[in-house]
Design a protein that fits this description.
- The chain is an alpha/beta fold and 993 residues long.
- Helices cover 52% and strands 9% of the residues.
- The strands form five sheets. A five-stranded parallel β-sheet has the order 2-3-4-1-5, with helices on both faces.
- It is globular, with a radius of gyration of 34 Å.
C-alpha cells in the first residue's frame, strides 16, 4: 500500500462522525447551497490538514487552494495570491492606475506657474478622489468570485498563520458568499492562534518563555497584527460551523495497524508504534516510512525482516524525520531543498525552471517523494506541497547554509524574471546580505502592499529601511538640492544640514535656515514627467540604493546621459531662457517624496520649515492632477499608519502634507471632495482634522445647493447630526432651528414636510442629550429643566407635524411616548402629552384595523430612521399592504417570518441596534443582483470585473429559502431619509410587494 493511501486512510480513521459532517457540506454544495466550514484542532497539530485533504481529494468539485504562512517579510493576502493570482495582480494594477489618474478633471494649463494659486481658488471642478479604499478589495473580490463557474471550493490551510488582512477578507467572504454555490473551508489550530508571531517549532508550552521572547525579537519584520488577528479568529470560531478534531483514538490506530501488519507482529510492538506517534497521523506514517527497509510484503500485509527486539526505533520525531530524509538520493534532496526554500505551494513547471533535470528525472523525484510521504499533490491538482511543514524544516537542516544561499539566489533571479510579487523577492533576498537586497526591494515590496490596500503591512517593509541609516541623510540632502535648483539667487554653495542623533534632534520649527558653506547633492535621476513618476522599476538608471550611496558633492556625482546634456548652472542668475523647467522639477519632487515612507520611519520630523515653504510654492509648478496622483497615495498611507501606530511617522510632517493637499491642491469650493477626505479620516479615527471642519463643510454644501431645498435640508441635517456627536449642542440647535425655518418657507416642495419632522425630532434629541450632559457637568437645576422642557416640546411639535401627513402611523405615538418618558424623568407636567399620546395610540390601532390589506410587511429600523420608515409605511398602505414597524432587532434577522411576506430592513452604521449588522449586509451588497446601479460601477481589465465605488448606500432584495428581505443601506439618518423618499417617488416598494 502506498504511503499516500495510508495517510489518507489515517486522516479520517476514527473520525467517521466528523467526516460525515464534512461530506454533508460537500453534498449541500452540489445541490447549490454554499456556506463555510472550519476544521479546528483543539490542541496542536492533530492532522486537520490531512483530514481535509483526504476528503477533498474524493470529490470532483473544483477547488482553489492556498496555504497561509507565518514568515517574516511575507506579503499580505499571500494565500489569496496563491489561489487567485490573476485577480490579485489585476487589482494591484487597477489601484496603481487609479492613483495615477486621480484628479483628471484638474488638468487645465492655467493651473501652472505662479498664477496657479489665483486660478485654483476660484475653480469649482472636482478632483475625483478615490472613495473608501479599505472596502475596495473585499467588494471587488466578492464580485469576481460570484461570476465564476459554480459550484467550487476555496480551501485554505493553517488560517492561524495568516496576517490580519487575510483573515478579515476571509471573514467578509463567509458573509458575502453565504447564498452562493461556493464553499469556504479552512483549517486552523486554536493553540497556535494565541501566539501567531512565532514559527511552529517554537510554539507550545514546552518551549521556555525566554526562548520565545528572544525568537520574536530576532524576527526580521515587526509583527503588527497579533491582537487584532486573534480577535478576528475568535469571531470566526463563533460564526463559522466548526468541526473539532482531537488526536486519533488509540484503539482505532491499533485496529488499523493490525490490518496492515501480519499476525506475526506482536501487539506490544504495535502499541509502541501508537505511543510514539502520539495520536498524530503524520507521525505514524513517518514511523512506517522508517520501517520501510525492514519489512517485506506478504500478500496485502507487511512482515518484519528481523526480530522485534533487534529493531531500534527512533527516540523522537526529529530523529524519525532526519532518518527518512537521509533515504533521499542526492538529486532528490537538492530538488526538495529548492521547494523548502520556496516555502509556498509550487507547480511542477516553476519547480523545473530552477533545476537542470529532465522531465523524466523530475517525475522520478516526485514519485520517490510521494512514496516516502514527503510531497503530495494539493487538492487543486496543480501544485505540490509538503505533507507537513516539519519535513520542510528537516530538509533545510540537512543542507549547509552556503548551499542554501546559492539556491535562494536562484529563486530571487527567477522571481524577478517571472515578475512575481516583490515581497517574495525581498524575503529570499533578505536571507543573504550579499544578494544585493536593499532599499529597492524594500520600496517595491511596500508599494505592492499599498496597492493591495494594506498600509500596515507596507509599514513593516518600510521599517526595514532603518538598516540603511544613510537613507535619511540622502533624503535631506536631496531636499536642499531641489531648492538649490530653483534658487533665484547667485548659485553659491548651500549648506546641507548635518542630521543629529535621534535624541538630539530638534522639532521642525527649530530648524535653522540653510547656510552657504557647502553644496547639497544627492544623485538621483528624477522622471521628466508625471507619467514617469511611478514606483521605481528596474529600468531606471538611478535606483534607490544608488541614491543612498551618493557622493557628497555635485562635482563627484555621476551624471546620467540626460544630465550630461544639460548645461551647468552659471555662477550668477541665469537669463530667463535658461530658467529650470518647472514641470521637470515638480516631477523630481514627486520621485523624491515617495521615499519619505522609508526616510521618516523613526518618527522624527524631517520636513523642516525651509522645505515646507519650498513645497508650498512647488505645488504651482505643475497641475493639481499630477500633484494629487503622487501626494494622495503617500498621504493615505501616512494617515492610516499614524492612526494605528502613533510613533511610526512624525505627526508634524503628516499634518503639513494634509494641509498641503486640503488647502493648496483641492479647490476650496470643491466641498464634496473635502467631505469625502474628512469622512474617511473620521472612519480611521485620525487626529489630523477636527469634526467641526466636517460640520462646517456640510453647511457650506447646503449653501451651494440653495436651488434644491431638499438637498439643503439633507446637508443641514447632517451638519446638525455631526455637531451633536461632538457635543456642540448649541451649534446643533442653531443649525436645526434654521433648517426648520427653511422647511416651513419651502413647505410647497414635495417631501419638505418630512424634513421638517426629522428636523424637529433631531432638535428634541439634541436638547435631550444636552440635558443629560448638564447632569454630568453639574449645571444649575433650572438650566437642566429648561433643556428638558425644550426636548419635550420638540417631540410634541414633531408628532403634531407628522399627524398632518399620516396620523395613523407609528411615529406620532412613539414621539409622544418619548415626550412622556422625559416628563416622568425630570418631573415635568405631562397631562397634555399623555392625552395626545392616548389619541395617537388610538388612531394607530384604529388605522391598522380599518385598512383592507392583501398581506403584511415588517419594517425593522433604528430610532434614528423612524421618519424614513414612516415614508415606506405610507407607501405600503397605498399598495394595500399592512406594515408592522419594529424598532430594533428581536431574534435572528434572517429567520423566516410567517406573518410578513416581506421584511424591509433600514440600516446605517450609526444605528445603535442595527449598526453591528451593517457590515454583514454591506458584504451581501457585493453580490446582490437587485442593488441600485446608480451606486455600483464596473470596470474591466483583462476580463476581470473590479468594483470602483463605495458600496455603502442603496437597496437590494435578498431572497433565500427562509425569507424575502429588502435591505436599505445608507451612510447616515439624513441619507436614509433622502433614499426612502426617492424610493417612494419611484414606487420601488410597490414593484416588489
Amino acid at each position: 500500500m502506498e504511503f499516500s493511501a495510508i495517510l489518507s486512510n489515517l486522516g479520517i480513521l476514527g473520525r467517521e462522525a466528523e467526516a460525515k459532517q464534512f461530506n454533508q457540506k460537500l453534498q449541500d454544495l452540489q445541490q447549490g447551497k454554499g456556506g463555510s466550514c472550519l476544521v479546528l484542532s483543539q490542541q496542536g497539530d492533530v492532522g486537520q490538514n490531512t483530514f481535509a485533504r483526504a476528503l477533498l481529494q474524493q470529490t470532483q468539485i473544483p477547488c482553489y487552494y492556498g496555504k497561509c504562512l507565518s514568515l517574516p517579510l511575507w506579503g499580505p493576502y499571500d494565500a489569496f495570491l496563491q489561489a487567485f493570482p490573476t485577480f490579485m495582480q489585476a487589482f494591484q494594477q487597477q489601484i496603481a492606475k487609479e492613483w495615477r489618474d486621480i484628479g483628471q478633471n484638474l488638468g487645465a494649463k492655467s493651473y501652472q506657474g505662479w498664477l496657479g494659486h489665483f486660478t485654483r481658488s476660484w475653480t469649482k471642478k472636482t478632483t475625483g478622489l478615490m472613495p473608501d479604499l479599505p472596502q475596495r478589495l473585499a467588494h471587488s473580490f466578492a464580485k469576481y468570485l460570484s461570476l465564476q463557474k459554480k459550484p467550487f471550493i476555496i480551501y485554505f490551510e493553517d488560517l492561524q498563520f495568516a496576517d490580519a488582512f487575510t483573515i478579515k477578507l476571509w471573514k467578509f467572504l463567509t458573509h458575502a458568499l453565504s447564498q452562493q454555490a461556493i464553499l469556504l473551508i479552512a483549517t486552523s489550530c486554536r493553540e497556535f492562534s494565541d501566539v501567531p508571531e512565532l514559527p511552529p517549532s517554537l510554539r507550545g508550552s514546552h518551549v521556555p518563555v525566554m526562548q520565545q521572547i528572544k525568537a520574536m525579537q530576532a524576527l526580521t519584520r515587526p509583527k503588527l497584527f497579533g491582537k487584532e488577528q486573534r480577535q478576528t479568529l475568535q469571531d470566526l470560531y463563533k460564526e463559522m460551523p466548526v468541526i473539532s478534531l482531537n488526536t486519533l483514538n488509540e484503539n482505532a490506530m491499533l485496529w488499523f495497524l493490525s490490518k496492515l501488519f501480519s499476525s506475526k507482529v506482536s501487539e506490544d510492538f504495535l502499541i509502541t508504534l501508537v505511543q510514539k506517534s502520539q495520536g498524530v497521523p503524520f507521525f505514524l506514517v513517518q514511523l512506517l516510512s522508517y520501517l520501510l527497509d525492514l519489512i517485506v510484503p506478504v500478500g496485502n500485509r507487511w512482515q518484519l525482516k528481523y526480530p522485534e527486539d533487534e529493531l531500534d526505533l527512533p527516540k523522537n520525531h526529529d530523529e524519525i524525520l532526519r532518518s527518512n530524509v537521509s533515504k533521499l538520493s542526492d538529486q532528490s534532496l537538492k530538488a526538495l531543498t529548492y521547494v523548502a526554500i520556496y516555502q509556498r505551494p509550487i507547480s511542477q513547471k516553476l519547480w523545473r525552471q530552477t533545476l537542470e533535470y529532465s522531465s523524466e528525472i523530475c517525475q522520478q523525484i516526485l514519485t520517490e517523494s510521494k512514496i516516502l510521504g514527503i510531497l503530495e499533490l494539493a487538492v487543486d491538482g496543480r501544485q505540490w506541497v509538503f505533507t507537513n511543514d516539519r519535513f520542510r524544516q528537516a530538509i533545510l537542516k540537512s543542507v549547509p547554509p552556503p548551499k542554501q544561499k546559492e539556491m535562494q539566489a536562484v529563486w530571487v533571479a527567477l522571481a524577478k524574471e517571472e515578475q512575481m510579487p516583490n515581497f517574495m523577492v525581498l524575503y529570499h533576498a533578505s536571507k543573504d546580505p550579499d544578494s544585493g537586497a536593499g532599499i529597492y526591494e524594500l520600496f517595491e515590496s511596500g508599494m505592492e502592499a499599498e496597492y493591495l490596500l494594506c498600509p500596515w503591512q507596507a509599514y513593516g517593509f518600510y521599517k526595514e529601511a532603518k538598516q540603511f541609516p544613510e537613507l535619511k541623510d540622502a533624503f535631506i540632502k536631496e531636499c536642499y538640492m531641489l531648492m538649490h535648483e530653483l534658487d533665484p539667487r547667485p548659485k553659491q554653495k548651500l549648506a546641507t544640514p548635518t542630521p543629529k542623533p535621534a535624541e538630539e534632534a530638534k522639532p521642525a520649527e527649530e530648524a535653522k535656515p540653510v547656510s552657504e558653506s557647502q553644496e547639497a547633492s544627492v544623485a538621483e535621476e528624477a522622471p521628466k514627467s508625471a507619467e514617469e513618476a511611478k514606483p521605481v522599476s528596474e529600468s531606471q538608471e538611478a535606483s534607490v540604493a544608488e541614491e543612498v550611496q551618493a557622493p557628497q558633492s555635485a562635482e563627484e556625482a555621476p551624471k546620467s546621459a540626460e544630465e550630461a546634456k544639460e548645461p551647468q548652472l552659471a555662477a550668477s542668475e541665469p537669463p530667463k531662457s535658461n530658467r529650470p523647467d518647472l514641470t521637470a522639477l515638480a516631477a523630481k519632487c514627486y520621485a523624491h517624496l515617495r521615499f519619505y515612507r522609508m526616510a521618516a520611519v523613526d518618527g522624527q520630523p524631517i520636513l523642516d520649515l525651509t522645505f515646507q515653504k519650498f513645497l508650498q510654492k512647488a505645488v504651482y509648478w505643475d497641475t493639481p492632477k499630477n500633484w494629487l496622483a503622487n501626494l494622495m497615495p503617500l498621504l493615505w498611507y501616512l494617515i492610516r499608519t499614524v492612526s494605528v501606530f502613533e510613533k511610526s511617522y512624525p505627526k508634524e510632517d503628516v499634518q503639513f502634507l494634509w494641509n498641503l493637499v486640503t488647502q493648496r491642491l483641492i479647490p476650496k469650493h470643491d466641498l464634496q471632495q473635502h467631505i469625502a477626505l474628512e469622512k474617511i479620516c473620521q472612519s480611521w479615527k485620525t487626529p489630523l482634522f477636527q469634526l467641526s471642519q466636517l460640520t462646517h463643510d456640510y453647511l457650506g454644501l447646503s449653501i451651494q445647493n440653495s436651488k434644491n431645498p431638499a438637498k439643503v435640508a439633507e446637508h443641514a441635517m447632517m451638519a446638525g447630526f455631526l455637531a451633536r456627536e461632538q457635543k456642540d449642542f448649541l451649534e446643533s440647535v442653531r443649525i436645526l432651528y434654521n433648517n426648520i425655518q427653511l422647511c416651513q418657507r419651502q413647505i410647497a416642495v414635495p417631501g419638505m414636510l418630512y424634513w421638517e419632522v426629522e428636523s424637529l425630532r433631531s432638535l428634541a434629541l439634541s436638547y435631550e442629550r444636552w440635558a443629560k450632559n448638564a447632569i454630568a457637568q453639574n449645571l444649575p437645576q433650572e438650566e437642566l429643566l429648561q433643556r428638558a422642557r425644550q426636548a419635550v416640546l420638540g417631540y410634541y411639535d414633531a408628532s403634531q407635524c407628522m399627524s398632518r401627513l399620516n396620523e395613523g402611523s407609528m411615529l406620532p405615538k412613539w414621539l409622544l411616548q418619548r415626550a412622556c418618558n422625559l416628563c416622568e424623568i425630570y418631573s415635568l407636567e405631562n397631562q397634555m402629552f399623555l392625552d395626545a399620546y392616548q389619541v395617537a395610540k388610538n388612531k394607530y390601532e384604529l388605522g391598522q384595523e380599518q385598512h383592507e390589506t392583501i398581506g403584511k410587511a415588517k419594517i425593522i429600523c433604528d430610532e434614528e430612521d423612524l421618519v424614513a420608515a414612516t415614508i415606506l409605511e405610507l407607501e405600503l398602505r397605498q399598495e394595500g399592504t399592512e406594515p408592522i414597524v419594529q424598532i430594533g432587532v428581536e431574534g435572528d434577522l434572517e429567520a423566516p417570518n410567517p406573518e410578513a411576506k416581506i421584511t424591509i430592513i433600514l440600516m446605517t452604521p450609526f444605528g445603535k441596534t442595527l449598526g453591528p449588522d451593517y457590515e454583514l449586509w454591506q458584504a451581501k451588497t457585493s453580490l446582490a443582483p437587485g442593488f441600485r446601479k446608480a451606486y455600483l460601477e464596473k470596470t474591466e481589465q483583462d476580463d476581470i470585473p473590479v468594483s470602483c465605488s463605495n458600496v455603502s448606500a442603496g437597496w437590494f432584495i435578498s431572497e433565500t429559502h427562509k425569507s424575502i428581505q429588502l435591505i436599505i443601506l445608507a451612510e447616515s439618518s439624513p441619507s436614509m431619509l433622502a433614499l426612502a423618499w426617492q424610493m417612494s417617488q419611484e414606487k420601488i416598494i410597490g414593484k416588489y410587494v
